[in-house]
Structures are given as structure tokens and as C-alpha cells.
From TrEMBL:
Residues 16-122 form the NAD(P)-binding domain. It holds the Pfam family NAD_binding_10. It comes from Streptomyces canarius. It comes from the Bacteria. InterPro entries: ComplexI_NDUFA9_subunit, DUF2867, NAD(P)-bd_dom, NAD(P)-bd_dom_sf. This is NAD(P)-dependent oxidoreductase.
Length: 503
């Protein structure tokens, strides 16, 4: 990567590029004229992004000092946009270790600046009373500020933007519940910020003076309670006025399960969000404007941010979602391969069908599975499996799709993740539901001559222990209905030339 001081073109390293903010920051940096390198544990998840050919992607992990050191070479500005939330009870230790590695490697490489997006903490609340989520993010900020590299810590509360977890939680709670019995945190004051303002400030922070080493509170112009936000959301969305009754008996744990039942956001993600709302989170200063003055019309107000987010949702232009990042603890390599697999026992259910349609029509159906189109077989069984997964803390079936027609590697798709896509031919999904083993679903479209095609489908399961084997044999009697029906219905849908909602 080359640096040109005469043009102000910087070399930027972005961690967390597979996540919600990182995936949006990269194109903003490129548009600003900077060069971008992304550090990712799974670089293949970034290959289908529109900006993939313009950015350099290297494999690595923020807890691995050697890979971080390689990624830091010739870098001017390093963005730290990762956290280990949900990776287990020791996630604070993981966050602490990763931040130290990042700061040490940045200093050793001569990086000019670190930029970190953290959480806005309440004033006057001691660390031991903060949620683990906020406490860890505050500690990461302190570690980076003490690294010896000039650091800008941007501290935001609720981020409003299409696809953000906070926005999805707000949206589904308001749209689905005209009458709500809610936790007492709906009366907590919050200062939300539009994702456009977050990205604007992240990009601008790359050019802060070298002597700036501090945290900045960032927020929009409105200070609202969560109840106010729901009422205003309903108004912007054209919904009838909502009746909201707050009760004090819902603990953060119960609140997260309540949110998990009503919204696509699972309890594991909803809990840190709701825990963070126990205390007032309002900006204590707006000092960032001394260095990055607000342009006319900015920062965006809450209702304008909601209006823009809803427009993106309705126009299917959501570039990243809260589910873009991989689920902590999700399966990893090795992948299943033919004819042998080094990973041990592998159960397989194979189906195929000849389709009275060309391969490109069959592929349209394959790429359109999930979300609103469903899974083309026994919808009650799929819904039940999704509910069971949510009940045990999994992601469930309601994450849906980022885009109704197009998939890319790394996309979440209900309780699956797109692991591999060879456009026009192969779609491989890896299960992210709670299972006693690893599971994949493959769908292939192949030409069969005479204007017809062949559909091939494989469900694969690698059991973990005796429970894994018992699980496979307990559900195998239903495979003929679920997987057999899926193959037949996908073939029929393709023959009708286009995907349609599963029956």
C-alpha cells in the first residue's frame, strides 16, 4: 500500500469488515480516496461485496499477534470495530487481550492513528454497575488510548440505520405490538445517532491531528426515551398510535427473551442491548465538532434517520445487517468434501430431480430460498424448528435475508449462513442453529440438455458425540417429507419460471 502525503490519501486497516458498521465503512473510505485493507478471519465472506475488487483483504484474527502485525504493515490509520460479545462468559478477557494485541502491534508498526467505535457509558455510574457489554467496550477504549498510538474513541448509544440491531429491535417491537407491556427501561433517556453520522465521523477521524488522543461522545440532536422512540417510529411508519405500559418486573434476562420472541434479534444479542438501556446514555459533550464540524443538515434527527432507514428496507437496499457478522461459536473448518471427509462421521441425505426448465431458471429459485419465499416444504416443520432454536438461545428462523433475490458469501439466511456460492451452479449453507453437531445444506443447478436441468440437493450432518448420532436418527424419518418435498417443490417452482412462496 502506498501513501501519498500530497493528496491526503491514507492507508487504512479495517477490522470487522464482515460486520454491520465495518461493511459500510469500507466503501465510505474508498469514496473518500483512501486505500483500504481488511483483516478478516474468513476473507471469502467479503468477496461478493461490491467494493471487493477495490480493497485488499488479508486473513487474520485480532487475537493473533502475528496476523495483526502483518496486517499493520504500511498502515496509517487502523480501525478497531470488533468485539467478542457472545463468545462465552470470558468475552471480557478476549476483548481485553485483543485490544492489547491491536494496540501493541499498531505502535510497533508505526501506525499514526487508531479509531475505535465504542459504547456511550452513563455518567456517574461505577464500572461494576455497568452491563458487561458496556464495561468491556469502555475498557477496550482505555487500553487503546494507553497504547502509545494517538487514538480516537467514538462512543455511541443506539445507532439508527437500516439493518442495525437497535433499529430492527425498535422496528419489530413497534410494528408487531399495538399494545405493549414493556420493561421499565422504556422510560430511560437515550441519545440515538443515525448510522450516516457514525460513518461520517469514523471517516473524518482518520484525519484528526496527531496530538488528539481521547474519547468523544457522539449522538444525534434528539434525546428521547425508548417509549418516545417507539411512538415516533409509529408516526413515521404511518402506524396507529401505540399503547405502551411499562412494568418494573422484567429483568434484563426476561427482557431479552421477550425481545427475542417478538423480533428477529435473538436473546443473545438482545440482552446486551437491553442491559445497556438500564442507565441513561446521553452525550456529555460534542467536542468532536471542533475537529469535524457538522455539515448543514447534520447530525440527522431521529425521525429523519428512521425515514431513511425505512426507505432502504422498502427498496431492498440494505447493504449490511446486524446478522452480517458471524454468530460466535458457529462451526468452522473443515468443510465437507467428496468423496471423503477428514472430519469423521458424516450423515448425508441426497435428493435430485429433473427440472422442465433451463438451469438459469432453476438457479433463480435456489438463490431465492428462505426469507419470504420460504423453504419449499412443510412450512410448519421449519417454523417449529425455528421456534425451538429460539427457545434454547439460538438465532431462530426469523433473521430472513439481506436481499430478497441476491445472495453473497457470508450472508445470513434464516438460521443458515451462506458459506459458498458459485453463481448459477452451487449454493452451500452452513447451519447456525443450536445442534449437537455441524450441518450443511447444498443445492446445485446443472444443465441436462433439451432445455431442461437437474437439481441436486445434499443435507450433511457431522454428529458431535452420542447425542449427535441420536439427533440424526430421530429426525431422519421426517427427511422424506422435509428434504424430499423441498426438492420436488423447487423443481416445480423452476418449471413455472420463477420462485414463489413455498407451500
Amino acid at each position: 500500500m502506498d501513501h501519498d502525503d500530497s493528496t491526503g490519501r491514507l492507508r487504512c486497516l479495517v477490522t470487522g469488515a464482515t460486520g454491520y458498521i465495518g461493511g459500510r465503512l469500507v466503501p465510505e473510505l474508498l469514496t473518500a480516496g483512501h486505500r483500504v485493507r481488511c483483516l478478516a478471519r474468513s476473507p471469502e465472506k467479503l468477496r461478493d461485496h461490491p467494493w471487493a475488487d477495490e480493497a485488499e483483504v488479508v486473513r487474520g484474527d485480532v487475537t493473533d499477534a502475528d496476523s495483526v502485525a502483518r496486517a499493520m504493515r504500511d498502515v496509517d490509520v487502523a480501525y478497531y470495530l470488533v468485539h467478542a460479545l457472545g463468545s462465552g462468559r470470558d468475552f471480557e478477557d478476549t476483548d481485553r487481550r485483543a485490544a492489547r494485541v491491536f494496540g501493541e502491534r499498531a505502535k510497533a508498526a508505526g501506525v499514526r492513528r487508531i479509531v475505535y467505535l465504542g459504547g456511550l457509558t452513563p455518567s456517574g455510574v461505577p464500572a461494576h454497575r455497568l452491563s458487561p457489554h458496556l464495561r468491556s467496550r469502555a475498557e477496550v477504549g482505555r487500553i487503546l488510548l494507553a497504547s502509545g498510538v494517538p487514538t480516537a474513541v467514538l462512543r455511541a448509544a443506539v445507532i439508527i440505520g437500516s439493518g442495525s440491531a437497535s433499529f430492527e429491535m425498535l422496528r419489530y417491537l413497534t410494528e408487531r405490538l399495538p399494545v405493549m407491556v414493556t420493561p421499565s427501561w422504556v422510560r430511560t433517556r437515550i441519545q440515538p445517532i443515525a448510522v450516516r453520522d457514525v460513518l461520517r465521523l469514523l471517516v473524518g477521524s482518520a484525519g484528526l491531528p496527531d496530538d488528539v488522543n481521547r474519547a468523544f461522545d457522539i449522538g444525534g440532536p434528539d434525546i428521547l426515551t425508548y417509549r418516545d422512540m417507539m411512538v415516533r417510529y409509529a408516526r413515521v411508519a404511518g402506524l396507529p398510535r401505540r399503547l405502551i405500559v411499562a412494568v418494573p418486573v422484567l429483568t434484563p434476562g426476561l427482557s431479552s427473551h421477550w425481545v427475542g420472541l417478538v423480533t428477529p434479534v435473538p436473546a443473545s444479542i438482545a440482552r446486551p442491548l437491553t442491559e445497556s438501556l438500564r442507565h441513561e446514555v446521553v452525550c456529555r459533550e460534542h467536542d468532536i465538532a471542533r475537529y469535524l464540524p457538522d455539515p448543514p443538515g447534520y447530525p440527522l434527527g431521529f425521525e429523519q434517520a428512521v425515514r431513511l432507514a425505512l426507505r432502504r428496507v422498502r427498496e431492498a437496499r440494505v447493504t449490511t445487517r446486524w446478522s452480517s457478522a458471524a454468530v460466535p461459536g458457529a462451526p468452522s473448518d473443515p468443510l465437507p468434501t467428496d468423496p471423503d471427509w477428514a472430519g469423521g462421521s458424516l450423515y448425508t441425505d441426497r435428493r435430485e430431480a429433473v427440472v422442465d426448465a433451463p438451469a438459469h431458471e432453476l438457479w433463480r429459485v435456489i438463490e431465492g430460498v428462505g426469507g419470504e419465499h420460504g423453504w419449499y416444504s412443510f412450512p410448519l416443520a421449519w417454523s417449529l424448528r425455528g421456534w425451538l432454536d429460539r427457545m434454547v438461545g439460538g438465532v431462530g428462523l426469523r433473521r430472513g435475508r439481506r436481499d430478497a433475490e441476491r445472495l453473497r458469501a457470508g450472508d445470513s439466511l434464516d438460521f443458515w449462513r451462506v458459506e459458498e456460492i458459485e453463481r448459477g451452479h452451487l449454493l452451500r449453507l452452513r447451519a447456525e442453529m443450536r445442534l449437537p453437531g455441524l450441518a450443511w445444506l447444498e443445492m446445485c443447478a446443472e444443465p441436462a440438455g433439451d432445455g431442461r436441468s437437474r437439481y441436486r440437493q445434499r443435507a450433511l450432518f457431522h454428529p458431535r458425540g452420542l447425542l449427535g448420532h441420536a439427533y440424526w436418527w430421530s429426525v431422519s424419518p421426517f427427511h422424506a417429507v422435509v428434504f424430499g418435498g423441498m426438492a420436488r417443490n423447487i423443481a416445480r417452482a423452476a418449471a413455472r419460471q420463477g420462485p414463489e412462496v413455498a407451500r
